[in-house]
Write a structure and sequence with these properties.
The protein has 11 helices and 6 strands. The chain has helices at about 30-55, 75-80, 90-110, 145-175, 190-200, 210, 220-235, 245-255, 260-280, 285-300, 315-330, and strands at about 120-125, 130-135, 175, 185-190, 220, 335-340. The chain has about 350 residues and is mainly alpha-helical.
Length: about 350
């Protein structure tokens, strides 16, 4: 997810005018901060990944809680078995590469269009996946709707492609679900792309059990959890609302419809969240996101993300359809189930 800058022209007569280039030298990059946050995120994701890999190798439920201070973040277990941290490398590396790909998609397009932006900031946190993701900060106005569209769509496409590749590798390393294994306390629900990738692999490695079995009968390798996070992040960012990547795409395509579509998205999330909650009372994540997006919409209600003119080239609608397809195959009504 990226923190895009905003542009508020004085009046509609300002739109056809080309925005001035930023004045003065660009801010000096804080490489030390980027590096420190990256190292901290490596550690927190290694903590989570090491326990996932340990459970996978020992045929234990993937997500289990013990006596952790924070559920599903086994820092005490990791510190008591420091050598186990090496087990977390596949998960940690896969997750960080997916997040980095998404943000670098935004960053490289910013560089292409001459828009000032920071390198990615990774956000370490004692969460289920060991991080809150990554962000870049855009520190200058975006000077055209085409630039806004390209910067917005580049991140989800880059992250999605790497997540799909990660998922394919993860399925290859997966195994049949062990008999008699108790269900995990937290169970991920898979979006359609998981089934598509598994089915596609049958044309290349049909003899592998993890490919031939139904997905519900497969114990997915922890790297598949990293791919799941990448898909969830893709779906979330492509929601057509506010300052999300999907919101930028909608604004670039139809600025006057952006506000209405943003609020319709919030209403849809409330409805989807209600359906998810009625089927599983522990699942209210879409209500949370509806609330956060509502706050975002209110805070940015007067912000213009780019000038109205020149209009966006018609060729961008092809990429817009691709973005919509990515949203459809990565979205899940109930992303996970919890049974504590």
């Amino acid at each position: 997810m990226s923190e895009f800058g905003t542009f508020s022209p004085a009046s509609t007569t300002d739109y056809p005018q080309q925005l001035p280039a930023p004045e003065g030298p660009p801010p000096r990059p804080r490489y030390w901060l980027h590096g420190l946050l990256l190292l901290a995120t490596c550690l927190t994701t290694l903590v989570v990944g090491s326990r996932l890999e340990y459970n996978f190798r020992n045929n234990l439920p993937l997500f289990t809680t013990g006596n952790e201070v924070v559920p599903f973040f086994p820092i005490e277990w990791a510190l008591s078995h420091p050598s186990h941290l090496w087990l977390g490398i596949p998960f940690s590396a896969a997750l960080l590469i997916i997040l980095l790909s998404h943000e670098m998609g935004h960053y490289l397009l910013c560089r292409y269009y001459g828009v000032r932006a920071t390198l990615p900031f990774f956000l370490p946190a004692p969460t289920l996946i060991g991080t809150l993701g990554a962000v870049i900060r855009i520190k200058a106005p975006i000077r055209s709707r085409a630039a806004l569209f390209d910067i917005g769509v580049a991140g989800p496409i880059a992250g999605f492609v790497v997540a799909v590749a990660t998922l394919a590798v993860a399925i290859m390393f997966s195994k049949p679900l062990p008999r008699g294994m108790h269900p995990a306390e937290l169970q991920l629900q898979y979006p359609a792309i998981f089934y598509f990738v598994q089915h596609a692999l049958r044309y290349f490695v049909a003899n592998r059990a993890a490919v031939a079995l139904p997905l519900g009968g497969v114990y997915l390798h922890p790297m598949a959890v990293a791919a799941w996070v990448g898909m969830y992040a893709t779906a979330l960012n492509l929601l057509p609302s506010g300052q999300l990547d999907g919101g930028h795409i909608v604004y670039a395509l139809a600025p006057r419809a952006h506000r209405a579509i943003s609020w319709l998205t919030v209403a849809a999330l409330v409805g989807i969240g209600t359906k998810a909650y009625l089927s599983d009372h522990s699942n209210y994540s879409w209500w949370v996101w509806a609330g956060l997006i509502t706050v975002m919409n209110v805070l940015t209600i007067r912000h213009r993300q780019a000038p109205d003119y020149p209009e966006i080239p018609a060729s961008r609608w092809v990429l817009a359809c691709l973005a919509a397809a990515m949203l459809l195959v990565t979205f899940t009504i109930s992303p996970f189930r919890i049974s504590l």
